[in-house]
Amino acid sequence: MFESQDNRMPTTTMIRFARPDEARDERLAPVYTDRPGLRRSTAVTYREGNQTRLEKRRSRTRVFAEDPFRARFGQRLPAGMRQEARGMEWRKFVATYAPSTYRVESMTTTRRSAGRRDFDMTITGLREDAGTQVSITSMGAASAMTQILADHGRRVEILEFHQYDIFEATVTFVFAQHETKKVWAVGFGADRDLSIAGALASAAGRLHG
């Protein structure tokens, strides 16, 4: 949704070789295309809907809360994350658990046979000088995003996974690990797949910087 495409712009493509049993299906190998000139967005992925009277009063009177997510949306954070985030103001919570180091700018999916799906994403942060257009086939958004991150040297292992629907969006919390480092991260999205991808991007940002 933030991309601007110029068909005349030169691009380079890196293709990973598929395993022998996948050689007949080229779509199974992720395809990465650099997008020079793609501006990184500073927009927050999640946009809050109209607040109720109770929510407005709560936001005025409770800037700091033991559970900042519950104060804002009425849902409790996962236990481990709730302990870490206790007393955080909302802006600090977002900056801490959803850093913008890597960002999924857009995503489209197409269903295939045997439960597989084609994912087409635009991601910023994987390269310093360009955004990255990714085409990958996977069983789900989590496996697709973890493979993309691993291919770029940002491995993320999910230890815990929590997901809620809020208003007309979805939020995903993950407790993730790389080697001995473990972090909580959050991702907001218009649908569940985008939320999952966003949470893993946030985790990669916290784990790898």
Summarize the structure.
The chain is α+β, with helices and mostly antiparallel strands and 209 residues long.
3D architecture notes:
This protein has 209 residues and is α+β, with helices and mostly antiparallel strands. It folds into two domains: 13-39 and 98-208, Double Stranded RNA Binding Domain (2-Layer Sandwich), CATH 3.30.160.270; 53-96, no CATH class. Helix content is 28%, strand content 31%. The protein has six helices and eight strands. It has helices at residues 53-61, 68-73, 79-85, 90-97, 141-151, 192-208, and strands at 13-15, 31-36, 103-111, 117-124, 130-138, 157-166, 169-178, 181-189. Strands 1-2-5-4-3 form a five-stranded antiparallel β-sheet. A hairpin with a 2-residue loop joins strand 6 (157-166) and strand 7. Helix 5 (141-151) runs parallel beside helix 6.
Average of the residue pLDDT scores: 82
> Can you tell me the CATH architecture of the largest domain?
2-Layer Sandwich
Structural class: alpha+beta
Number of domains: 2
Under CATH at level 1, the class of the largest domain stands as: Alpha Beta
Shape: globular
Order of helices and strands: EEHHHHEEEHEEEH
Count the beta strands.
Answer: 8
For the sheet with most strands, the description reads: 5 strands, antiparallel
Major sheet: arrangement of strands:
1-2-5-4-3
